[in-house]
Amino acid sequence: MESHRKIIHIDMDAFFASIEQRDFPHLRGKPVAVGGSRERGVVAAASYEARKFGVRSAMPSALAYRKCPQIIFTKSRFNVYRDVSYQIRKIFFEYTDLVEPLSLDEAYLDVTENKKGIRSAIQIAKEIREKINNTLNLTASAGVSYNKFLAKTASDLDKPDGLSVILPEQAEEFLEQLSIEKFYGIGSVTAEKMKKLGIYKGKDLKEWPLSHLNDNFGKTGKFYYYIVRGIDNRKVKPHRERKSIGAERTFSKDIANVEKMKEHLIRIGDILWERIIKGNKRGKTLTVKIKLHNFESHTKSKTFEQLVTQKNKLVSEALLLLDELEPQTFNVRLLGISISNLQDFDSNDDNDSSDDFQQLELF
């Protein structure tokens, strides 16, 4: 067991919704859902006031409204959220360069050796939370332990605006008493499967041999075997490799006209290409996604031998993939394009800066 590392997991509290409540006083203390509307869409984030009614992120907004008729829907402002996330990471980097972002609102920090020479990871976590609150008027929860799994688990124990610590000598007893659904990495479906097998707490999981866990849970059985023993040797990786870049749009009304779908797909391709250029990446695998009124998704992908380095090729191939999905048979609520199988790309070699979608024979 590696007990010498000092890992902090910082998780912002209801990040998107908290920013909206911070910036718009009339939303404070109210149940707020970012994204969607009463009739359609999906909740991107919910304030804690909304969560009391069972509203959660990724929930259809119509269901959120049924659960909480007084809920206030607000439009997403992702540019603002990204800017705030950047400011938070600047605070992290005051203490360590070993910062591994998981999303805009959470990250791991390895502070075993830190820039300020502070011996206590607990003290560092306190200072970071205070700086976030004082400079950005937002709250964060933190977990401190000797590995990533336990730090992540700890950060969920006292939300919102909490700080929890799992010391090496506490880990074994803590994990034995922890409900199985509270283990990070064990979702609701797996938790229900485990309960049917008699696994309700960590102590039950610990009794299972590795071979039996592999038989019942496949490759993740090994993960479960080690985490219940407090073993997680994964390092904090400051440069997480991005697996895909995408762009999508959800429509206020379902679209049944194929030519309209293609017009929107072109615009989505434009946004995606800007993100590809900004990320200095190119990819080989192109995917087009459509989502129907009942949230059923369909995708088509194509992998090329060479990197897609031209905007017109990306868009024209995306349109062909859309045709393969037979969109005329659907009422579409969402369209999206993504590129994966990514590689770094020298922008000086990009000869596509002058391409214009209008030059393509699209229809």
From TrEMBL:
Name the SUPFAM superfamilies on file: DNA/RNA polymerases, Lesion bypass DNA polymerase (Y-family), little finger domain
The cofactor binding remark recorded in the entry reads: Binds 2 magnesium ions per subunit.
Q: Where in the cell is it found?
A: Cytoplasm
Per the record, the similarity remark reads: Belongs to the DNA polymerase type-Y family.
In this protein, which residues make up the domain named UmuC?
7-187
The residues annotated as the active site are E106
Q: Which residues form the signal peptide?
A: none
Q: Which InterPro entries match?
A: DNA/RNA_pol_sf, DNA_pol_Y-fam_lit_finger_sf, DNA_pol_Y-fam_little_finger, DNA_polymerase-Y, DNApol_IV, PolY_HhH_motif, Rev_trsase/Diguanyl_cyclase, UmuC
Which GO terms of the cellular component aspect does the record hold?
cytosol
Q: What is this protein called?
A: DNA polymerase IV
CDD domains recorded for this chain? PolY_Pol_IV_kappa (cd03586)
The GO annotation for biological process reads:
DNA repair; DNA-templated DNA replication; error-prone translesion synthesis; SOS response
Record's subunit section: Monomer.
The taxonomic lineage of its organism, from the top, reads: Bacteria, Pseudomonadati, Bacteroidota, Cytophagia, Cytophagales
Question: Which HAMAP family does this chain map to?
Answer: DNApol_IV
What organism is the protein native to? Flammeovirga yaeyamensis
Asked whether the keyword Transmembrane is assigned, the reply is no
Q: Which PROSITE patterns match?
A: UMUC
Name where it mostly resides: cytoplasm
Q: Which Gene3D superfamilies match?
A: 3.30.70.270, 3.40.1170.60, 5' to 3' exonuclease, C-terminal subdomain (1.10.150.20), DNA polymerase, Y-family, little finger domain (3.30.1490.100)
Q: Which UniProt keywords apply?
A: Cytoplasm, DNA damage, DNA repair, DNA replication, DNA-binding, DNA-directed DNA polymerase, Magnesium, Metal-binding, Mutator protein, Nucleotidyltransferase, Transferase
What is its biological role? Poorly processive, error-prone DNA polymerase involved in untargeted mutagenesis. Copies undamaged DNA at stalled replication forks, which arise in vivo from mismatched or misaligned primer ends. These misaligned primers can be extended by PolIV. Exhibits no 3'-5' exonuclease (proofreading) activity. May be involved in translesional synthesis, in conjunction with the beta clamp from PolIII.
> Transmembrane segments in this chain: where?
none
Q: Where does Mg(2+) bind?
A: D11, D105
Q: Which reaction does it catalyse?
A: DNA(n) + a 2'-deoxyribonucleoside 5'-triphosphate = DNA(n+1) + diphosphate
**Gene that produces this protein:** dinB
Give residue numbers for the site Substrate discrimination.
F16
Cofactor(s) it depends on: Mg(2+)
UniProt EC number: 2.7.7.7
